[in-house]
């Protein structure tokens, strides 16, 4: 088979040229990093789980009319996606205080926020993805005011969907990060959810016990990351077949 052209390699994923113009193949690695690469490990099977989970969330979003870059899953570690212009922002939605917000404001983790809060970080590893106000984003031309209005409503719709799906399986969606891409259709730009949605980019706590089921398990040395992600996948019914044997559904005539 001809070698594929690598377009980009990040900390957790690789992008290859896709089979048709305007497409890419997104490969999920097993690498885990935290603290902007300061802590690194390889977690067996993480890429397989994140590929499945991201497929599950992206197809769910599409089923309620939220556009995403996802086309289809190709195999255990790869999915076909649309080639988008990534807006250089991390769009973070928070329902409860945690992580950098809790630290910055001296809040107790888990404090319920008065309403979902959307914030933006400038995507730049060397700078550690600094939080930026809308004023910077518009002044530096990373996105227009119209884009930002659209991104906020997109992010809040994603939040409603993900919070509901997670609540249904006993998981609290504390916060998450998405990336947004721009695609051009007949000279008109359209914003779509891009990158991935997985426990790497969300904070997920068990509703009953508060147990963390996300990348904080790795960031804070709280136990097995693959056990946590497997639990999320198990609850959502999206475990890959070689990880465990799901009972077959009973067919009723
Ligand atoms: P915080 O700003 O509290 O560190 O993160 C807020 C949310 O965004 C968390 O769910 C976290 O996992 C996610 N997040 C923030 N930055 C990144 C990043 O660089 N990569 C990934 N995968 N997720 C991030």
Name the shape in a single word: globular
Largest sheet composition? 7 strands, antiparallel
Q: Compute the number of strand runs.
A: 14
Radius of gyration: 18 Å
What is the secondary structure topology, with strand pairs?
Layout: E1 6-9, E2 13-17, E3 23-28, E4 31-34, E5 39-42, H1 46-63, E6 70-73, E7 78-82, E8 85-86, E9 89-96, H2 99-105, E10 112-122, E11 131-132, H3 134-139, H4 145-168, E12 171-185, E13 188-194, E14 202-206, H5 216-219, H6 225-236
Helix pairs in contact: 1-6
Bound molecules: guanosine-5'-monophosphate.
Residues 90, 92, 98-101, 129, 175-177, 200-203, 215 line the site of guanosine-5'-monophosphate (5GP).
Pfam family, one: SAICAR_synt
Catalytic activity: 5-amino-1-(5-phospho-D-ribosyl)imidazole-4-carboxylate + L-aspartate + ATP = (2S)-2-[5-amino-1-(5-phospho-beta-D-ribosyl)imidazole-4-carboxamido]succinate + ADP + phosphate + 2 H(+)
Domain SAICAR synthetase/ADE2 N-terminal: 6-235
Describe the structure.
The termini are far apart. The protein has 253 residues and is α+β, with helices and mostly antiparallel strands. A hairpin with a 5-residue loop joins strand 2 (13-17) and strand 3. The chain has helices at residues 46-63, 99-105, 134-139, 145-168, 216-219, 225-236; strands at 6-9, 13-17, 23-28, 31-34, 39-42, 70-73, 78-82, 85-86, 89-96, 112-122, 131-132, 171-185, 188-194, 202-206. The mean pLDDT is 94. It has 2 domains: 6-82, 2-Layer Sandwich (Phosphorylase Kinase, domain 1), CATH 3.30.200; 85-224, 2-Layer Sandwich (D-amino Acid Aminotransferase, Chain A, domain 1), CATH 3.30.470.20. The longest helix has 24 residues, at 145-168. The protein is built from 6 helices and 14 strands. Helix 1 runs parallel beside helix 6 (225-236). The strands form 3 sheets. Strands 8, 9, 10, 11, 12, 13 and 14 form a 7-stranded antiparallel sheet that branches. Bound molecules: guanosine-5'-monophosphate (5GP). Residues 90, 92, 98-101, 129, 175-177, 200-203, 215 line the site of guanosine-5'-monophosphate.
């Amino acid at each position: 088979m001809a070698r594929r052209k690598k377009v980009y390699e990040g900390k957790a994923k690789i992008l290859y040229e896709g089979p048709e113009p305007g497409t890419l193949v997104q490969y999920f690695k097993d690498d885990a990093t935290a603290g902007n690469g300061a802590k690194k490990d390889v977690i067996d099977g993480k890429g397989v789980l994140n590929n499945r989970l991201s497929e599950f969330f992206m197809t769910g979003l599409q089923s309620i009319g939220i556009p995403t870059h996802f086309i289809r899953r190709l195999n255990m570690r790869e999915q076909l996606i649309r080639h988008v212009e990534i807006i250089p922002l991390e769009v973070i939605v928070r329902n409860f205080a945690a992580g950098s917000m809790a630290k910055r404001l001296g809040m107790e983790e888990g404090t319920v926020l008065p309403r979902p809060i959307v914030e933006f970080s400038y995507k730049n590893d060397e700078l550690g993805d600094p939080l930026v106000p809308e004023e910077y984003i518009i002044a530096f031309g990373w996105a227009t005011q119209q884009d930002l209005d659209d991104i906020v409503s997109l992010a809040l719709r994603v939040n409603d969907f993900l919070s509901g799906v997670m609540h249904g399986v006993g998981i609290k969606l504390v916060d998450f990060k998405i990336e947004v891409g721009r695609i051009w259709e007949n000279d008109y730009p359209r914003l779509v959810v891009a990158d991935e949605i997985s426990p790497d980019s969300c904070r997920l706590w068990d509703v009953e016990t508060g147990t963390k089921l996300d990348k904080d398990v790795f960031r804070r040395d709280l136990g097995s990351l693959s056990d946590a992600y497997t639990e999320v996948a198990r609850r959502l019914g999206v475990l890959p077949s070689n990880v465990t044997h799901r009972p077959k559904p009973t067919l009723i005539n």
